[in-house]
Amino acid sequence: MSTTATQYETDYKAKFGPRAYLNEYFQEVDQTNHNVMQFIVETTEMYPAKLANATLLNFGCGPAIDTMISFAPQCAEIHMSDYLAGNLAEVQQWVRHAPDAFHWEIFLRRALSLESHGTIPDAEVTQADLEAREALIRQKMTQFLVGDAAQMHPLGDAATASYDVVSLFFCLEAAATTIEQWREMVKNVFSLLKPNGLLVWVMTAKQSKAYYVGDELFNIVPLKQSDIEAALEGIIAADSLKIQYFDVVEHEHVEGAYMVTALKAG
User: Fold this and answer.
1) pLDDT, tens only, 26-39
2) Which residue(s) pair with 217 in the sheet?
3) How many Å apart are CA 197 and CA 202, to the nearest integer?
4) Is the distance from CB of 154 to CB of 189 less than 8 angstroms?
5) For residue 3, pLDDT beyond 60
């Protein structure tokens, strides 16, 4: 571990509850969830060649599978990585059909509807299509890896894997305590991406400063678009960077979110 204690070393292991987090943010497909899922569908349509038969690393996955629903049909493998073993265990419960696993049906319905460009409403997605997508996701999730963004080798010194796609959703800004530490984490995580590989990244924006899980409050490093551009300078192909923004109205202390795609420099 890093010799300097990070927020997620001091707070997350002691205070973060995987099921409490799911109950807080995934009881319904709110506008933030919808926007992220729409962004993922658009990304799969924009970069089919990059995703075809790709091995995707979802870094900082938390206990959730929603962001992988629309990636699964194109990728060859999905590796889920998180700092907390409890988050990985929550995902594995779903993969193994555990009786008390979290239910993702409403998110599956929304993703399949979005993939149809709205021609199939959520309620009209068939049970057969739901079960087929669930089976595909479970098949594609082949590894569950403890990861630490504060380390130069986030998956461990022995890990030499290099990924075609690296995705992050609301991760590093909640792990770092300063903008300087956040920049170092960005550098560390994106070292796992192959040259010309695809980066898919969603993060809280502007004056977003914290989020709740039950009664626990976790800090967020506020980020501007210029912070993203500076952190990725020298890492990505400059003309490949695409940044979108949306307001977040559902969650106290969170102002908005950036949605980013880019290709790593060759």
Assistant:
1) 999 999 999 999 99
2) 212
3) 17
4) yes
5) no
In a domain, 68, yes or no: yes
Give the residue numbers spanning the domain of 242. Answer: 7-263
Query: Would 161 be classed as within a structural domain?
Result: yes
Within-domain flag for 40 = yes
170 inside domain: yes
Q: 75, exposed or middle or buried, with CB in 10 Å at 0-12, 13-18, 19+?
A: buried
Q: Where are the beta strands (DSSP E) in the chain?
A: 55-59, 77-82, 141-146, 163-169, 193-205, 210-213, 216-219, 242-247, 256-263
What's the one-letter identity of residue 138?
R
Contact 87, 62 (CB under 8 A): yes
pLDDT-based confidence at residue 11 (cuts at 50, 70, 90): confident
C-alpha angle 23-55-193 in degrees, rounded to nearest 5:
95
Taking CA atoms, 6 is separated from 13, 61, 175, 260, in Å, by 11, 18, 7, 25
Task: Indicate which CATH number applies to the domain containing 125.
Answer: 3.40.50.150
Count of domains observed in the chain: 1
Task: Write down the pTM of the prediction.
Answer: 0.94
Give the helix/strand (H/E) hosting 44. Answer: helix 31-46
Alpha-carbon span 246 to 31, nearest angstrom = 10
48-74 pLDDT per residue, tens? 999 999 999 999 999 999 999 999 999
What is the pLDDT at residue 5?
A: 54
Share of the chain above pLDDT 90, in %: 88
